[in-house]
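Let us work through a complete example step by step.
Step 1: write down the sequence.
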Amino acid sequence: MAEDFTAVIATWQHFYNLAGSAAFTLAGLVFVEVSLNIGKVAPAGAQGDCAIRTRNSR
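Step 2: predict the structure and record it as C-alpha cells.
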C-alpha cells in the first residue's frame, strides 16, 4: 500500500516543483515592485506603522 502511494506521489513531483517555483518567483516580484514604488506604498506625509517602518528601513 505504501509503495502504491509513493508511486502516485512521485508522478506529481514535477507539478509541485513548478508550483513552488512560480510561487517564490511571484513573491520575489512583489518585493521588487514594492521596493521600486515605495513612494506610493508609504507617501512622505503618511502616518501609520507601515509608513514609519518603510521610511526607517532605507
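Step 3: interpret the result. The mean pLDDT is 83.
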